[in-house]
Amino acid sequence: MLFLQDTENAAPRDGQAVLEAFIDALSWDDALARITQWGAARESRYVCICNVHSVVTTTRDVEFKIAVNNADMATPDGAPIAWALRRLGHPSQERINGPDLMMKYLAEAERLDQKVYFYGSTDATLAKLRIALAKKFPLLRIAGMSSPPFRPLSLQEDEQTIEEINSSEANVVFVGLGCPKQEKWMADHRGRINAVMIGVGAAFDYHAGVIKRAPLWWQRNGLEWLYRLGSEPRRLFKRYLVTNTLFVLGFLRQIVIAKLPLSDA
Question: Of 29, 219, 209, nearest to 108 (Cα)?
């Protein structure tokens, strides 16, 4: 399925709508190649990393839905989203998640001498992230880091942020504001920030060591969400109960309407 963004000179995207979110069908190599190519030219683009919560939110928040569907790329984060794409005609689709995409791109950025900027989280987390990245990528060029206040920015503050990022000559800006704030922020700043913006949610916390990520076995078997639930049950129980249920019901309805099988069998 090809999807043409409602933006000037936008290229068609190969993928599929999952509920009301258009998700790109692509490999890790495809995703990294696009980001490094766009980044080299400092094109103003943005990338959404979509898990179950993101997809369900598109059915309830019109502004967020527009932001996701007008992205330059929306990757299938979360095993259920990759599985949904496989059911919808893209049998080799992999899960392309934010924390891993961030690290894979940073390795390429170090190799290609591209500059990166980190926007979001807290000053304390960013300080720990800088130390962690310096150990893993000693030649990585960090153009800057900034933690915005937990409130809407004034027009003047927003203009200062844009000027700071653009003056840094960053090729890619990682945005860690959380969903749906980061997606709306990126959509609002495309055409104003001269870099590729990638919304990576809690990736700053993971790589800074503030939050422990699920072991590889849990990740590879689609159970990272369950590990997170066990780590933060009070905060995440209601979210997972509601969004996971809505996703299952919504996708079953989508499959029935499309008359598709639930499995490859």
Answer: 29
